[in-house]
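User: Can you predict the 3D structure for this chain?
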Amino acid sequence: MALQGRAREQAVLDRLLSELHAGRSRALVLRGEAGVGKTALLAYLATHPASGHVVRTVGVETESEIAYSNLHHLCAPLMDHLRHLLPAKQQALTTALGLTGGDSPGHLQIGLAVLDLFAEAAAGAPLICVVDDVQWVDRMSAAILAFVARRLDAEDVALAFALNTTASALAPHLSLLHLLRCPPST
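Assistant: Here is the predicted structure, written as structure tokens:
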């Protein structure tokens, strides 16, 4: 699917997929004002034939105060892989997501559990996690996803975030693709 006026951005996403298939996990933040095409670029990435397994979440303003709501949305389709995690990580993740009771786990345990879950889910084919409208993602999910994004190495996992220019940065150490408005076609 070709997007008009977005060849440069599509090339960046194609390169992300190439690197992912070469064994290099990546995280990328698409940043731009509302209506500039971030969602269309995420759709391009998610529907690309080389994408592998894709999970998605979208920040929703009315859920932005519900801790781990977006993390739950991303992890729910991957829960078949939970059994491959160490018991302590299984417990941390299921407790954080409200699937089991218990003492609230620490953020480090949750972050490491999510990283391991993503890695397990990517064992058969690359995994791409798409997070749109990050400015409305709940604070705890955003913190855990930023933690995971900074620790990606060779897990065959890519995280792609779309963020409004009016929002604060997701994580200062992630690759950033700033989107500008395309000039009108003549």
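The chain is about 40% helix and 15% strand. The chain has a mean pLDDT of 90.
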